[in-house]
Design a protein that fits this description.
Number of helices: 0
Strand content: over 45%
Number of strands: 11
Shape: globular
Largest sheet: 7 strands, mixed
Order of helices and strands: EEEEEEEEEEE
Distance between the termini: 36 Å
């Protein structure tokens, strides 16, 4: 699966952004899709994931603020991010694999999109 992430940008704390990931290649709907992020000087961390059927998984720090969704007909997965905090600043990556918090369980990765939250 080839993945193309978009939607990043600069936003003030408390604001919102929606990230999108467009997939192409082998069957998209059979994969779980995840979002990870990596801040400068830190390891890549799990953010959220969703199965083809819509089961979701979130890391605690974003639960209630972020919402992941997917449209299997359009081969897209979105991450709606609300109430953004400066600590959400990172490069965000979408990935395809099996539902997991572990990056090793995802086989295909997009190129990343920068999210910067100013205080």
């Amino acid at each position: 699966v080839q993945l193309q992430a978009s939607g990043g940008g600069l936003v003030q704390a408390g604001g919102s952004l929606t990230l999108s990931c467009a997939a192409s290649g082998r069957t998209f709907s059979s994969n779980s899709m995840g979002w990870f992020r990596q801040a400068p000087g830190k390891e890549r961390e799990f953010v959220a994931a969703i199965t083809w059927a819509g089961t979701t998984l979130y890391t605690n720090s974003v639960r209630g603020r972020f919402s992941i969704s997917r449209d299997n007909a359009k081969n897209t997965v979105n991450l709606q991010m609300n109430s953004l905090k400066p600590e959400d600043t990172a490069v965000y990556y979408c990935a395809a694999g099996r539902l997991s918090r572990r990056s090793d369980d995802y086989d295909d990765w997009g190129q990343g999109t920068q999210v910067t939250v100013s205080s």
